[in-house]
């Protein structure tokens, strides 16, 4: 089983090695794991002049799964704008057909008081956000800076969806709901945007193919409010690329921190890219304080969805829970009476929990 390891930039270079330690520990004696390493983001630019080097793309294509850290930072964003190039991560998602992003929101009970919401509001929360990942305003054309007739600066981005793209992500959401509590909430802005009216129409059509799943609709503003007011009402949320980006970051605070939120980006053929939902966090990079648990939990999703190793995925998730329950914490989830540790020590603690 081959896994491409792409640490990327910023804290990605610190958190990914901890997830690799966990993968090696949980696979030892159970199955053979082959790891290949590549550059992406600013590290790709520095190595080859490209944010997605040809060698990295070829490696990602031949491997079964990709473990990804993060890309970003002021220097990288300036380089992308200057050279008018898309982010290496966006290129990778589009090229590999990674159209479905799964973001589970299942707070660890021992972290209930870390959330900004009252513990009773999130008690029992188990939600899955399904985000369409390969279209919408992030990829729509035309885009970019233009100059209007009167010389005033202007810029444009285009929200665009094809029926087939909406239909594909709808099936992912409904099938996921069939394995859960059989409820799908589709989030759009159909009262204002024609693109989102198409979204709602197609979701409704696909929903008829799943009579055992309840389908509801919410506008994005109402959904954002409901996530904070009554989050446990949701089972599966399915939404577009931009709205999903926003809602899943909001949902991270239900779990206490962005550092606790894993994700899986899946292609129809089964290949997956697994990453924490936070960015490169250049302000804390290189200081051994970043929380690696979202990346470790992303590795658990890699085991579950691509490698089909459910037993090992559960072992990793349970090891994380035991470490947190024992009071071992990074700064973002620190509480009175707990022991604060750094990135490497947290990874070591999870490995020790696996061994125990």
TrEMBL record:
The record marks 138, 189 as: Important for catalysis. It is an enzyme of class 1 (oxidoreductase). It is found in: Cytoplasm. InterPro entries: IsoCit/isopropylmalate_DH_CS, IsoPropMal-DH-like_dom, Isopropylmalate_DH. Pathway: Amino-acid biosynthesis; L-leucine biosynthesis; L-leucine from 3-methyl-2-oxobutanoate: step 3/4. Residues 2-350 form the Isopropylmalate dehydrogenase-like domain. Transmembrane segments: none annotated. NAD(+) binds at residues 279-291. One of its GO terms (molecular function) is 3-isopropylmalate dehydrogenase activity. The keyword S-adenosyl-L-methionine does not apply. NCBIfam families: leuB. This is 3-isopropylmalate dehydrogenase. It comes from Paraburkholderia dipogonis.
């Amino acid at each position: 089983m081959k896994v491409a390891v792409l640490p990327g930039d910023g804290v990605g270079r610190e958190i990914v090695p901890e997830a690799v330690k966990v993968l090696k520990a949980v696979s030892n004696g159970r199955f053979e794991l082959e790891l290949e390493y590549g550059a992406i983001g600013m590290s790709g630019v520095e190595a080859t002049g490209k944010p997605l080097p040809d060698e990295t793309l070829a490696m990602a294509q031949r491997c079964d799964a990709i473990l990804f850290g993060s890309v970003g930072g002021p220097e990288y964003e300036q380089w992308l704008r200057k050279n008018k190039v898309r982010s290496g991560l966006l290129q990778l998602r589009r090229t590999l057909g990674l159209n479905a992003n799964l973001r589970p929101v299942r707070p660890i009970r021992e972290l209930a008081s870390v959330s900004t919401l009252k513990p009773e509001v999130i008690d029992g929360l188990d939600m899955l956000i399904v985000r369409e990942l390969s279209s919408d305003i992030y990829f729509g054309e035309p885009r970019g800076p233009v100059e209007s007739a009167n010389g005033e600066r202007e810029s444009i981005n285009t929200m665009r969806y094809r029926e087939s793209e909406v239909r594909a992500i709808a099936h992912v959401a409904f099938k996921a709901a069939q394995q859960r509590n059989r409820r799908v909430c589709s989030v759009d802005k159909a009262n204002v945007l024609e693109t989102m009216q198409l979204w709602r129409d197609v979701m409704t059509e696909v929903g008829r193919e799943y009579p055992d799943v309840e389908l509801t609709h919410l506008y994005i503003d109402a959904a954002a409010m409901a996530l904070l007011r009554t989050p446990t009402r949701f089972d599966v949320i399915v939404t577009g690329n931009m709205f999903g980006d926003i809602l899943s970051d909001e949902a991270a605070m239900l779990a206490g921190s962005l550092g606790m939120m894993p994700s899986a980006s899946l292609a129809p053929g089964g290949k997956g890219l697994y990453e924490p939902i936070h960015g490169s966090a250049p302000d804390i990079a290189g200081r051994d304080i970043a929380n690696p648990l979202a990346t470790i939990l992303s590795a658990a999703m890699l085991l579950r969805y691509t490698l089909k190793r459910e037993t090992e995925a559960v072992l990793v998730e349970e090891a994380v829970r035991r470490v947190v329950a024992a009071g071992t914490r990074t700064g973002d989830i620190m509480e009175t009476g707990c022991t604060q540790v750094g990135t490497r020590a947290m990874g070591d603690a999870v490995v020790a929990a696996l061994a125990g």
